[in-house]
Amino acid sequence: MDPLVGVLVGRQREREALSSFVGAAGGRSLVLKGESGVGKSALLQHIADLAAGEDHQVVRAAGVEAESDFAFAGLHQFLHPLLPHVERLDAGRRAVFDVVFGRDEGPAPSVMALAIAVLDLLALASSQKPLLLVLDDGHWFDAASAEVCGFAGRRLTGSSVKLVVGLRSDLPSRFDTAALPVLDVTALSEADSEALLDLHHPGLDARIRPVVLAEAQGNPLALLELPPFLGSRSATGPGELPRGHGVPLPRRLEYLYGTRIAALSAPVRAELLRGALDGVGSGRAAHTTRGTRYRMTDADEAAACGLLDIDRSSGDFVFRHPLVRSTVVQTATPNERREAHAALARMYRDDLERRATHLAASAVDPSEQVAAELEAAARSTTRRGGALAAIAWLTRAAELSESREERSRRLADAAFIAGQAALPDQARRLARADPVQDGRDVPASVVASAYEALYRDGEVRSSRRQVVAALEALRDDPGPGAGEVEVRLVNLLMVTCQYAADAVAWQQARDLVGTLGERVPVLSLIYRDAWSDVVRHGAGVRRRLDRAFAGRALLDPWDVVRLSVAAYHLDVLGPHRPYLQRSVDREVETGVTAAAMTMLHLIMLDQTASGAWEEAERTGVRGLDLAVERDHALFAYHSRAYLAQLAAMRGQVERARELQTAVDAWARPRGVGFLTQIADAVGTMAALSEGDYEAAYLYAIGITAPGSFEPCAHQASRTLLDLVEAALHTGRAEQARRHALAAQEAGLPAVSPRLALITYGALAMTAEDEQDATAQYERAESLADNAGFPFELARIRLARGIRLRHAQGPKAARQALTRAAEAFERLGATPWANRARAELRVSGMSTRPSSAAGLTWQEHRIAGLAASGLTNKEIGERVHLSPRTVSSHLYRVFPKLGITTRAALRDALGNAPEGSDTRGPADGA
């Protein structure tokens, strides 16, 4: 057993702190931080012994450098002893762990989703006896595991779980930003250093003793290791040990271990090397993601000279210290390392990603078999969020490819993923690693450079021209292995055309894609039809989209994001928002920031559409901060455009116009029509909020003329209600009616639920007789998905109330006006709420806010669902919350409404409670 872990000398300050930590009531976390060899492992063993003596269950884990790039590898060690408790969790939490443990091929969960599941698991595991989690070498934990442990560690208060983490102070750690309490572990005092030296090396030569104390400088590992080394060198003096001149103590200890390793027999050195390369721990035998890692055998010679210890629980050889493990690798020759990796690859024949790691390091000559295995591992880890590992494996696969075509294809794959991961410099290097063909840039280089120019600088026109030229060249002379790059060029062409929002560009793209025939995949055709012009091409796309989403688990992250963009254009994004919210943190953490920023845009859009405006604001600001941080101008102005739209809807006109001006000034010179259209839509909405209907009309007709829908202008159909309302208020009834009829004739109700709602609303607002108006209004009210768009529904109700007051008198208008006013108040659309209240006063009703006006949108939605008779569990399934959270919302709702029972909800909310027959904003369309 390691003497460092057996007996503590001194350390009174640390002992008291750890004793207090174990004895304190409730859950808490602590980080032990110090230089290598300072005694962190001994203190971790001490606290584990203390906890075991207090009848705690102790679970231990250790970070391993060889696994620092494997997602969830570190977390798996912590969770492995707690697996029996997973089956007691609900289905949603079990599904999260199924992905983490590799039992399910679904998308990797977000940090928050996984951390919450881990907290639930820890609560179950500690229900019978307190639990202590001990993590050594936390600096080697993979990013996902460290994030989850940090998140959970900050939220242990009130539980029976404690977490203690050991970190090296000389290495950066993913725990550095976890904001956990830190106990610094410093060197031993002079007196304690002497006591430790006397305990383990009694009778040390008087000539060597002061040298050891001076060299060790209070480091316990050095105090233990230096005496035998210096004693064996006494004939030539201690000067052979590298010392002074700024050489760090760990480096000097590595030299010491190197001399011991060199003295071992070749078979033992090979055994140590296999263990070191596979990440065998120091002080314990740890589990890999899918089983136990390599077990060293016949290594007694290494144990005898102090390089290995025996794990107390398993009886396996383990490295005495991480410095031993790293020194074994550093002192091995390249051939020895390759042979060890080859042996480990054979051992992990059933573990795709771990086998790929060792294969990549063992191969020397080109091998198509090895390259194919690396490529398969890259595809697997890409779907689980491991973009950086995928780039490394694909790059190595390209180096090992036997044909030039396969090499080019794999480099292109690596360059593409690097581009999606916002690593433009690496993407360019990878793309240009394949030489220019016939004086032309290779297609992979075009993909990389065009994405960078588009995302970073908004170069829509030049990017599109570059992609068109590359596609035409590839179409005429595809060559072997060109299919994947061709598909990427097609999809990139769709992206550039979407941002251009130009009918000529889209027609050129349609013509070019048409010449490729069946080489164009189904997904690309969905992007083309949904992104270009839903008025003319949107019919039937919803069914194709649903079929594509059914195979989401097999799609790459960027294809899921593109399908979600199509869902936004068809106003059916709501059901997919939970997936985006689960995935966005993972994409940010793993560096796939292009996908992450688009996810944030989509989440914000659905939050805005469904009425969760406070959440939408926070999401938009997060997206803007990320885009600015990563220097992606296009995404930054994209975020500003959506924030401007939200501000205009809320009546924050000054802010809306400030953002509108910034977006327009940047986007218009670059030809980014997608954003200039949003800027015009912001101008329309801001003017409507102010009641400046003439300005609103002029903005609206700048997007599309009354009675028509400008081709390939995505805001043309989305601003249907804006144009009609502005026209009616400015005495242009004929233009308003013509525009509403044009929407009906274009078949917009069949394209999307939102377009159905605003088309029927526009027809009701412009109807020439009251019977027709009533019929169209009732069609709008009867739509199953209308509550997914509360702002538009409230505007239609307001217009209906105004019309009824004029046609049938004040009393007939009150219900529609009341429902509109309450909806605007819940949303925070202040000018609209004021307008509705003013109409209510004219109709003879008091403008005193309703009893429900003090509820937030979330509270009102949950209260409405509860009033309809749903249980907390059923409500939670509708709005994507836990039953406990639903109960908490209702607990706050009751005193706001002045009621004490669930049965009183319906009366408190009114006879027709908002949301009582709806799915609420989070459920979408």
Low-confidence stretches: 1-5, 234-247, 283-291, 436-440, 911-925
Q: Please give the count of helices.
A: 48
Main sheet summary: 5 strands, parallel
What radius of gyration results from the CA coordinates? 33 Å
CATH topology heading of the domain at 3-184: Rossmann fold
Number of strands: 9
Helical content stands at 55-70%
Widest sheet: strand order? 2-3-4-1-5
Q: Could you name the CATH class of the domain at 3-184?
A: Alpha Beta
Distance between the termini: 63 Å
Identify the quaternary structure here. Answer: single chain
Mean pLDDT across all amino acids:
83
Keywords: ATP-binding, Nucleotide-binding
Protein name: LuxR family transcriptional regulator
GO biological process, one term: regulation of DNA-templated transcription
Domain HTH luxR-type: 848-912
Any chance you could write out the topology, listing elements then pairs?
Elements: H1 3-6, H2 12-23, E1 28-34, H3 40-53, E2 57-62, H4 73-79, H5 83-86, H6 91-100, H7 111-125, E3 131-136, H8 143-153, E4 161-168, E5 182-184, H9 190-200, H10 209-216, H11 220-232, H12 249-262, H13 266-277, E6 287-288, E7 291-292, H14 300-304, E8 308-310, E9 317-319, H15 322-331, H16 334-347, H17 352-362, H18 368-383, H19 387-400, H20 404-420, H21 424-432, H22 443-457, H23 460-476, H24 483-500, H25 503-516, H26 522-532, H27 534-537, H28 541-550, H29 557-569, H30 577-589, H31 593-610, H32 613-629, H33 633-650, H34 653-670, H35 673-690, H36 693-703, H37 714-718, H38 720-729, H39 733-745, H40 753-766, H41 770-782, H42 790-808, H43 810-827, H44 830-842, H45 857-867, H46 872-879, H47 883-897, H48 905-909
Parallel strand pairs: 1-4, 1-5, 2-3, 3-4
Antiparallel strand pairs: 6-7, 8-9
Helix pairs in contact: 2-3, 4-8, 6-7, 7-8, 10-11, 12-15, 13-15, 13-16, 16-17, 17-18, 18-19, 19-20, 20-21, 20-22, 21-22, 22-23, 22-24, 23-24, 23-25, 24-25, 24-26, 26-28, 26-29, 28-29, 29-31, 30-31, 31-32, 31-33, 32-33, 33-34, 33-35, 34-35, 35-36, 36-38, 38-39, 38-40, 39-40, 40-41, 40-42, 41-42, ...
